[in-house]
Amino acid sequence: MAVIELDGLSKWYGEVIGLNNVTVSVGGGITGLVGPNGAGKSTLMKLATGQLHPSAGTIRVLGRRVWDNPSVLSQIGYCPEGDVFWPEMTGRRFVQFLARLSGLAGAAARSAAREAIEQTGMAEHMDRPIRGYSKGMRQRIKIAQALAPRPKLLILDEPLAGTDPVGRHELTELFGRLAADGVDILISSHILHEVEALTQQMLMIAHGRIVAEGELRTVRRHMQGRPHAIRVVADDPRRLAAELSQMASVTGLRITEPDTLIIETTLPEQIYDCLGELILHDQMKVQEIAAADAGLEAVYDYLTRGSALG
Fold first, then answer.
1. How far apart are CA 84 and CA 101, in angstroms?
2. Around Cβ 129, how many Cβ atoms within 10 Å?
3. In sequence order, which residues have a C-beta less than 8 Å from that of residue 66 and are 6 or more positions away?
4. Residue 299: band (very low, low, confident or very high) from pLDDT cuts 50, 70, 90
5. Same domain flag for 205 and 277
6. Are residues 153 and 263 in the same domain?
7. Strand-pair partners of 230
8. Domain check: are 99 and 137 in the same one?
9. Which residues 6+ apart lie within 8 Å of 193 measured at CB?
């Protein structure tokens, strides 16, 4: 069963379109929702958490409608992008209070709150007022309140924003452990390498539309006709460049270091096949052959520079 299902979903604010006729299914595990600010990420997440009503189309979460449906909402943990705190509250009281709003009774709320706070590494600071928290600490306590109800689905809107490298590493490991324990996670970010470190399963959004979905490597394979770059580290890159310059599928060649050749092509599979033959035939010493732009940043740049995949 899909965790989240969107069918012709649109949301507009007057003349401003937040989401535009989106049909997509989100499976289990961790799914990254990536896109620049204003792309529609937060709108999609607010629709999935029942905070907004669709202007058109439908959305189902955990197999059921989400709008005005407490039985579904109680199974969703949500970490918003913005800070909405009572600054005089301690972290512990804040998480306990929201746990009780989610339906947990007093003792259960206290126990769940402490467990969630410990999971996010905030136990040492939980009895301090939130007004004294750093940005990274506020992010952790927001994640703790999302975890406290022990949800089946976590929806996290830019949860790593404002955290330092140690914090990002610790939270990334936490999300991985939660997923391994069966919690499904939808996590948004405009910092693409952060999501890439968590999962290969992506939804890429721009201008209110999904421009690509699926595993990053699958998205790459669908990008035929778009430029790719291949990096070859070899003892004689100039000789290799001379051989490749005769191929019609090579659109550019650049030597960026004394031992590094960048090959630009719209047919990468053909180039990979040819490279093996050339290296063996000419007995070249090669240390590395890799996609120079296989990262999510490059893929996303290609997709959003143009339009959605056809």
1. 15
2. 15
3. 47, 48, 49, 50, 59, 60, 72, 73, 76
4. low
5. no
6. no
7. 263, 291
8. yes
9. 295, 296, 297
Tell me which residue range forms the domain holding 246: 223-305
Other residues' Cβ atoms within 10 Å of the Cβ of residue 78: 23
Q: What is the pLDDT of residues 84-109, one digit of tens each?
A: 899 999 999 999 999 999 889 989 99
Average pLDDT over residues 295-307: 61
Of 162, 195, 220, at which residue does a domain stop? 220
Q: How many domains does the chain have?
A: 2
Nearest partner of 291 among 195, 211, 220, judged by Cα: 220
What does the pLDDT look like over 244-297, one tens digit per residue?
998 988 999 999 999 999 999 888 778 888 888 888 887 888 888 877 766 655
Q: Which of 155-159, 170-174, 203-207, 281-285 has the lowest mean pLDDT?
A: 281-285
Are 108 and 125 in the same domain? yes
Domain limit, last residue, from 188, 220, 252? 220
Residues 73 and 191 in one domain: yes
Does residue 55 share a domain with residue 75?
yes
- The answer to whether 50 and 66 have CB atoms below 8 angstroms apart is yes
Number of neighbours of residue 181 by Cβ within 10 angstroms: 7
